[in-house]
Amino acid sequence: MKISHNLRRLSLIFWIHVFIPNILVNAQDVRKEIFSTIEKSGGVNFAYTIPNDIEANVPPSGYEPFYISHFGRHGSRYLVSDKEYLKVINVFEKADSEQILTPLGQDVFNRLKIIYSQVEGNGGELTPLGKRQMNEISERMFEKYPNVFIQNAQITAVSTTVGRCINSMELFCEGLREKNPVLNINMDSHENHMDYLNHHTSQAVQFRYAKDTWLPEYELFEESHIIPDRLIKSLFLSVEHLGPEFKPSSFMFDLFEIAGNMQNTMIDISLYDLFQKEELYNLWQAKNYQLYVKYGNAAINGGMMMENAKPLLNDILNKAENVISKNEVGASFRFGHDGNIVPLAMLLHIQGTYNSVANPQDYANFWNDFKVAPMAANIQMVFYRHPEVKDVLVTFLYNEQTVSVPPIETSLFPFYKWSDVKTFYQSLLQKPSKVPTS
């Protein structure tokens, strides 16, 4: 086992020294993007950004929208548990009792106490911003596709059994009803929806939590990127009295997590001033690494995470076919988590979401969590039909922006023939998920 660890270390050193010039060049864009909008370092905590262009795509002559198939991540939330705040506050409390806080440390302690007084008891729940996001996304959808939301429209909405997803579903549908009060929307969050909304294979779960799959290589990456000394010295005069359980890197990550989530709370306090921009970028890289390997299409997991979204894709195909065959009008809304939208996006092969990268140093250049799974992230498939033409057309929106599906050919972009889309996705459901590495 020790030999294996040393080999991984030598391999990582080789990649860093031989390929670092090209990596630095390729990484400039994402680094600049985070430096210019530091909130993006929050990754999956990045608050949803309202798109600049919300106009609907203009379809070929005679085609009209009649159905929308949707999957959305819940809106902005507080950190999942109050414990995530308390484990950081408890360190400051101990340091305060030992009189080892620097002036900055005392200031941060005071900020954290104010923050906690406003978030206590809300762990995992939607913030006011998250509630507003759900209303606004559905209202924009209604304004773009009013022909879909008519009186006799067949509309269903389902969510996972987690409270913030149920609440997101309700608020989303409320936004539609505010536009058209006569809409009949069938909402449900029963346990039986979990089999496809929140499916995780046993192989995927085992891979994520095993100590000998991705973790050894990640620990080397973290060790070379996360340097907590400067931050720790700025907050504490000494760490000796904080006890052996105090881990500087873990503490830095925990504080970073609170800092990244503040943008969702609408509390006018920031913690970003505690970090240098390069520190934030490296912390983000480490968190991005974890999500990409555990839920995305990193080469090390062999494409197995796509399997998690297959029941969901099957549901998408079946519901669409049902609406088409019955010549109905309506929509299917689904609400879940970042761990659900990540594999769905890559199984759908939406551009920029399914790259399979082997070199950990290059993950950030090909896959960004703040683009794939920000708070309130959503995928919309909008279907169009013509009264005299057999072909149904579909267009793809990711976070309300038009996107492409490169493996599917079309001469009508951003519109695809549903027959081509269905054939491609059915082929994916019938075989193991594999994508060539980059």
Automatic annotation (TrEMBL):
InterPro entries, per database record: His_Pase_clade-2, His_PPase_superfam
Coiled coil: none
Family matches, as CDD domains: HP_HAP_like
Compartments, as annotated in UniProt: Membrane
UniProt KW keywords: Hydrolase, Membrane, Signal
Keyword Disulfide bond annotated: no
Domain of life according to the entry: Bacteria
Catalytic activity, reaction form: 1D-myo-inositol 1,2,5,6-tetrakisphosphate + H2O = 1D-myo-inositol 1,2,6-trisphosphate + phosphate; 1D-myo-inositol 1,2,4,5,6-pentakisphosphate + H2O = 1D-myo-inositol 1,2,5,6-tetrakisphosphate + phosphate; (2R)-2,3-bisphosphoglycerate + H2O = (2R)-2-phosphoglycerate + phosphate; 1D-myo-inositol hexakisphosphate + H2O = 1D-myo-inositol 1,2,4,5,6-pentakisphosphate + phosphate
One MF term in the entry's GO annotations: bisphosphoglycerate 3-phosphatase activity
EC number annotated for this UniProt entry: 3.1.3.62, 3.1.3.80
One cellular-component annotation, GO: membrane
PANTHER family assigned: MULTIPLE INOSITOL POLYPHOSPHATE PHOSPHATASE 1, MULTIPLE INOSITOL POLYPHOSPHATE PHOSPHATASE-RELATED
Family of the protein in this entry: Belongs to the histidine acid phosphatase family. MINPP1 subfamily.
Protein name according to UniProt: Multiple inositol polyphosphate phosphatase 1
Organism: Mongoliitalea lutea
Lineage: Bacteria, Pseudomonadati, Bacteroidota, Cytophagia, Cytophagales
